């Protein structure tokens, strides 16, 4: 599938999603209080974008006041989880302009996810216009603080009232917006629990789609991680319980002692992360191509223990670049390097965020201006 090129240097139009203003938006004082150190995904702006699919096409596009979504108790999404979603951020630059980072990739990934869930694709132009219109309506909610951003959550869900296990004939698109700070605080590394026995995805399953069911399956191992003092789970492949795949919401990067970087290859069970792709591009630009390959958990265990692996970090929209300080499981506990951020992860985090926040040239044309 080919998509229209987005002209650079222009502000993306949200006109396709006309605004019905919220008659009772948060006051400046209320908004300032809500935006002070918001918990990730707990604060929402005054509006949401929406559209509906029925009769074989998308319509009813608009940005409307944020409100509960009325739903029949028999709506298909509530029973069979026919749902896909995305996550991307809007960044405020020093001149006040606001930019989305590679939103076309999110739009394309949502089309791929929708295909796997037998849902109608939302055209790229609609995805972009919905995000642009929402940010334009709620631009006062885009934080100024370094590391903070407005997190957009577009999703599609099956709305037909039916308990039959079959694709719905009606769907809703909704996009919400949440001001967020840094997902994982602190300069130290996060502790990772290596999940044994529980897996996130199987061959032929939905691992590379961004659908709620994958995350539902990750709740129990995530809970185990917490009980073991860890912040995140690392999943191994379901077939052999041997190869590292990804974390609950981030992709994994491995830095070896010779300076090379490796990441698990996209096998169909891993989400093709946009941060993963961006980090790989930035490292390759700097003469450090990232090898996509199978990586055994034993290679990581032995490498971390021997010093052959010097750094591990996780990458994703929410967490940006997060150093991994410790790896734990039922039968081992290992500190990675000195347990803190390493030089490669720190370097790439700065490169990436400098582009996102407009502090350096966007040579790859990754930003799309919306305000
Ligand atoms: C399971 C999973 N892997 C990886 C990622 C990272 O993807 P991205 O960089 O596109 O946010 C995410 C977050 O969206 C995720 O949920």
Write a concise keyword list for the protein shown above:
17 strands, eight-stranded antiparallel β-sheet, disordered N terminus, 371 residues, D-amino Acid Aminotransferase, Chain A, domain 2, D-amino Acid Aminotransferase, Chain A, domain 1, nine-stranded mixed β-sheet, BCAT-like_C, binds pyridoxal-5'-phosphate, alpha+beta
Summarize the structure in words.
With 371 residues, this protein is an alpha+beta fold. It has nine helices and 17 strands. Strands 8, 9, 10, 11, 12, 13, 14, 15 and 16 form a nine-stranded mixed beta sheet that branches. Strands 1, 2, 3, 4, 5, 6, 7 and 17 form an eight-stranded antiparallel beta sheet that branches. Strand 12 (261-264), helix 7 (274-285) and strand 13 form a beta-alpha-beta unit. Helix 3 (103-116) packs across helix 4 (124-137) and helix 7 crosses helix 9. The longest helix has 14 residues, at 103-116. The protein is globular. Mean pLDDT is 95; it is low at 1-7. The structure holds pyridoxal-5'-phosphate (PLP). Pyridoxal-5'-phosphate binds at residues 87, 246, 249-251, 271, 273-276, 316-317.
The counted number of beta strands is 17
Determine the structural class based on helices, strands and strand pairing. alpha+beta
- Residue share in helices? 10-25%
> Which architecture of the largest domain would the CATH scheme give at its second level?
Alpha-Beta Barrel
Bound small-molecule species: pyridoxal-5'-phosphate
What is the rounded Rg?
21 Å
**SSE order:** HEEHEEEHHEEEHHEEEEHEHEEEHE
The overall pLDDT, averaged over residues, is 95
Largest sheet: 9 strands, mixed
If you consult CATH, what is the topology of the largest domain?
A: D-amino Acid Aminotransferase, Chain A, domain 2
CATH superfamily of the largest domain, by name, is: D-amino Acid Aminotransferase, subunit A, domain 2
Number of domains: 2
Report the total helices. 9
Low-confidence stretches: 1-7
Overall spatial form: globular
> What is the strand content?
25-35%
The termini sit apart by 29 Å
CATH class value of the largest domain: Alpha Beta
Cofactor: pyridoxal 5'-phosphate
EC number: 2.6.1.42
Organism: Demequina capsici
Modified residues (N6-(pyridoxal phosphate)lysine): 210
